[in-house]
Amino acid sequence: MKAVYIAYNQVLSDTVLKMLDKLQIRGFSLWADVQGRGSFAGEPHMGSHTWPAMNSAVLAVVSAEKVPEILDAVSKINQLSEQQGIRAFVWNVEATV
What we know:
97 residues; alpha+beta; Alpha-Beta Plaits; 4 strands; globular
């Protein structure tokens, strides 16, 4: 099993949720208001007067076979909306209950 964490500008929320549905990823946790700053480019998303944008984040635990599909879909979203910002990170899941 793999944990896939996706952080993205809130403006992409509908797109990300549709992606999860399309990939038949039913189980996930969502954080609606996430502050952050990208590592390479883009403006901070802090929900402040100076930096008003905010991020959201999704964490899904999926089979290892699903990971390439998810990363490909996130990459396509990023290519279409690079200025908005979306990133995906993958970790191993050692055990679940």
